[in-house]
Amino acid sequence: MDQFEFTSSQKKFTFGLMGIGLLALIWAVYSIMVSDGADHHAASARLWSNLLICGFFFIGIAVAALFFLAVQHAAEAGWATMFLRVFQATSSYLYVGSGILVLVLLFGGHDLYHWMHEDAVAHDDLLAHKSDYLNPTFFWIRTLMYLGVWIFFMRLFKKLSLEEDEIGGTEIHFRNQKYAAIFLVFFGYSSSTASWDWIMSIDAHWFSTLFGWYVFSGMWISSLVFMTLLIIWLKGKGYLPKVNENHIHDMGKWIFGVSCLWTYLWFSQFMLIWYANIPEEIIYFKARFDDYRILYFGMIIINFVFPFFGLMDKDNKRSIGWVGTIGVIIFITHWFDVYMLVTPGVMKDHWHFGGIEIGLFLGFLGLFLFVVLNALSKSPLIVKNHPFLDECIHLEQN
Amino acid sequence: MSETKMIYGLYDDDGTLTKAAKNFVSNGLKIKDVYAPFPIHGIEKVIGIKWTQISIAAFIYCMIGCTLATIGMRYFMIVDWPMNIGGKPNFSYIQNFPSFVPITFEFSVLCAAHGMVITYLIRNWTLPFVKARNPHPSTTDDHFCMEINPVQNKASEDEIKSMLKDSGAVEIFEK
């Protein structure tokens, strides 16, 4: 089976998830309409922050998949050759994800970003000082540039990969390597600045130099976990017959390693701010520690402890059950990481966690799965004629 | 070194050795060890060497390092001579915990790394000034050596030697 078939029951399942999301959306809109005054404001802030959380979480997965694909191309890596189509399919959510994110920023920007209010900037020296960078015009130029360039490279890698299927040889392989290197340079800057623009500017008075890396590592680990789960699911369905525990071992190593990277960056950002103890910096963590204590610490501890101790042993990394279980857990808790990036800045201490959050997450998940599986069914599941395909099939490690 | 006489076959190519080893094992011959200047991919599975447990040892060393660092820093910085650094609480370990994390991490890594190296050297008995135990000097250069214990095998010494010769060994010797 070298062609993935997106069956109608799978389609129905993703439509079901999207239906739940739609119900949650209607519920959220209804609760905005019936409320007034402060409640009205809180209800609309809740809806927009949730749309930004889900919009960013899933586009982060897609763009980190593109990044990971580019890493394989740039490093001429052989181990993941059988997974390249999975990476490409995951990154193909960028079309839909960009559209959603643009809509959210366009209509929700006013509720999400304090600095978008002209009268607030006029009475705020700090925001006025930052307005050369943080102003709506430049914000939109940057946003459209990131999304445009990401989509351009996504299309480019997909096109070259399909061409390689047809003609073979090594010429496309080296072209891929060159383009991947260019993309990685752009991504290195744009992943940081995108996270400043979309996420860090919610708390416009606060800044952290490590923020971009922290958000990027969260995107990367979510993406790795999603793609590993997709590979495991495909293997369970009987696709990818040549994928064995050696390949799962490598994905497990990545999950283990990037989880440590994420924890390291979280802690590095926290410890410097905690040590310096400067009021305008510490306020960011104070909001999270005081109002979200259990959720925040629970998220950090699960995101570190589960993959660290669960995937430390070699046999666990080679076991589909272990990698899958820990993958599902930290996929959800990394959504909470993005929740914690957005909600405290928008909702302050008036936060809620309930049907709207869960419903919108499921709705976005359904849409994401639909787009990814649809893209996966459009091209052969395993690349042909890739120079390292044979190396990947015979991948073996202890 | 035990008193048992071993039979050695010296090969000039790791591929030839691996092929020979596979052939011997499928014929019921037990190979005691292989000496090579570099790791031969997959040879440990062929000759049936058990997976190393050094990673478990590393975890234990790491935990020892973590404990030692915690005890040490608590004694130095909290109990014996509390120091006020940046206005942080200096009479409580738990409230000052974040500032101790980097050193705990680094000391754990230090202990794990040194523990692993020392364990490896002792286990293989390749400590400094210890006499080398490889059967032929050229196994550290460009030759690959297979060690067979004739006592453990049903085949006679002459049979083993002729098998080694047929499989492409460039030199056969006893020690």
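Residues 8-388 of chain A form one domain.
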